[in-house]
Amino acid sequence: MGEIELIVIISILLLIAPFVSNILKLPIAVVEIIMGSLVGSFGLLHDSHMFELLAEVGFLYLMFLAGMEVNLKQFVKIDKKIFLLGGLFIFFIFLLTLISVSIFHLSNIFIVILPMISVGLIVSVQKEVGKSKWIEMAITIGVIGELVSIMVLTVISGIFKLGVGSAMYFSILKLIILITILIVGFYITKVLFWWFPTIKHYIMPNDDKYNQDIRLSFALFFIMISIMIYLHLDMVLGAFVAGMFITSFFEHNVELEHKLSPFGFGFLITIFFIHVGSTFDLRYLIDLKMLKITFLVVALMLGIRIFATLIFIKLMSLKEILLFALSLSMPLTLLIATSTLAYQSKSIDLMHYNAFILASILEVLISMIGIKQVLKIKIDKNR
Predict the structure, then answer these.
(1) The domain spanning residue 243 has which CATH number?
(2) How many beta carbons lie within 10 A of that of residue 364, not counting itself?
(3) In this structure, is residue 62 part of a structural domain?
(4) Is the C-alpha dihedral spanning 262, 268, 271, 276 positive or negative?
């Protein structure tokens, strides 16, 4: 099969994915992964540099859009009590993960996989169920968790590529220096825009006939990725930071995210999920060992979050706690990213890779269905 046939097949999948998603009532990301797996199993999606490159850019663009969900100026204003509880929640997730890994004699990769948190799908849940106390809390805590997860992913990526040694320690030092520079840069930019507010409107005007907002967004996206490549750090962090910067300092352009999202979710990000599906070997669905690992990952990820969420018992009802835990049990993109990095570095075998991919899909299905069912439960408000 040549490149032309590959382009045609990917184009067809791009076109029909929304219809299949509506018919099956499943998140479109899950549908795209399943379609990629089914079509790939028939040999219709072959290895291609173009396909892999577009998929990688799609993933980075997804992280860029995820970063745009984080407004740093609002983030630093989070109530201290909520911030401390969020930190305690994440600490308990890692603690319960270490206990689980020890009890079940799991490999070290599970220490990275199980605590992963991402807000991407939480936002899509909010669009369906509307605003409420538990989901606003989930997004706030989810942002903290995703920042931690991105940092862990960046460090782990360095370990996968460089191994444990002086090169890895030097990479972590570069990461710390970079984060320090970014924090200082954030405050400098904040002060600059406070003293000269017209600058941001000049850079990104409201009357924008040249699409300067899109030009700036893509320029910053690729510049940050280039910096990460030059520093030999994971590109995910660069994409995420670029998104945070855009949202934090150009909040006056409320339409920007709506302009950028369709290009991602209608093209690049879709190709990423199709590519992930194409790497999933359906033959492993009859592998009992793989299925055992898959269900263990799903059970632990859900169980750990439910137990950790109990620290919010004074702030939320039991129903809200369950909804909160389910909403933070869908780290689809980060779980796939970590699994891909681990497999490419030969830190895990194909069976574990497939187990993690399948677990990421099942977590979304269980969490989405679970949230809808729990919302139907009526509980007396007088606790």
Answers:
(1) 1.20.1530.20
(2) 21
(3) yes
(4) negative
Whether the CB-CB separation of 129 and 371 falls below 8 Å is answered with yes
CA distance 271 to 51: 8
Pairwise CA distance, residues 133 & 377, whole Å: 17
Four-residue CA torsion sign, 217, 220, 226, 228: negative
Residue 50 lies in a domain: no
In angstroms and rounded to an integer, the radius of gyration of the C-alpha atoms of the chain is: 21
Compute, in degrees rounded to 10, the torsion defined by CA atoms 35, 37, 41, 45: 80
Is the pLDDT score of 383 beyond 50?
Answer: no
In a domain, 46, yes or no: no
- Predicted structure pTM score: 0.81
Q: pLDDT tens across 35-80, in order?
A: 988 898 888 887 788 888 898 898 888 888 878 877 777 777 777 8
Q: Return d(Cα 360, Cα 158) in angstroms, integer.
A: 23
Angle at 319 between CA 313 and CA 322, to 5 degrees: 80
Q: Yes or no: say if 106 and 318 are a contact pair by the CB < 8 Å rule.
A: no
**Domain count for the chain:** 1
Domain membership of residue 92 as a residue range: 56-268+283-376
- pLDDT category at 307 given cuts 50, 70, 90 is very high
User: What is the three-state SS of 203-267?
Assistant: HCCCCCCCCHHHHHHHHHHHHHHHHHHHHCCCHHHHHHHHHHHHHHHCCCCCCHHHHHHHHHHHH
Residue 149, amino acid: S
Residue 53's contacts (CB-CB under 8 Å, 6 or more residues apart) are none
Do the domain assignments include residue 38?
no
User: Residue 75, Cβ neighbours under 10 Å: how many?
Assistant: 15
